[in-house]
Amino acid sequence: MTKGALATGLGVALLLGGGGTLAVWNKSVAEPAGTIVSGDLDLTAGVGTWTNDAGTAIELDSYKVVPGDELHFSQPVTVALDGDLMSASLTLTNNLAGSEFASYLEVGSATLKNSSGTPVIAPLDANSDGEYTATVSVTFLEATTGTEGAKASNALGTIGFKLEQIAPVSTP
Length: 172
Fold this sequence. Notes:
Elements lengths: L1 H18 L20 E6 L3 E4 L4 E2 L11 E13 L4 E6 L12 E3 L3 E3 L10 E2 L4 E11 L20 E5 L7
Antiparallel strand pairs: 1-4, 2-3, 2-4, 4-9, 5-8, 5-10, 6-9, 7-9
């Protein structure tokens, strides 16, 4: 009994003497969080055209390329970017080549040009809304020897351009 009374007395002394408290007080407040609104990005495209390196419009299915030939695909695109910290870049979504003829081709990267024909340096931002021309070049490699690739054909498939957001950089 003495041990029990001693333990109880020690527990009460600790609680009253700063080792704890008999009452737990707390208070909290809340503030309306507000409404968050997200931005958007959009890319629409018109009909594309092919030209050779001389700038002459060509029909791809009847044009006969030779080693060193460079062909250019151009397509009007409209860019819409909406967001306070929005930035984006344009890329090519596929490499166009899909058969043994592909080993004779080199596909360039996507280029975006403004209405005066000047290349646009990425990234685009929320002030970049407007009409552009997206282009990509396909070169029949000059290093092709003998008659390799002669009278060959290659279905290039589809050309796709992708407008992709660049995530904002977090600052600590």
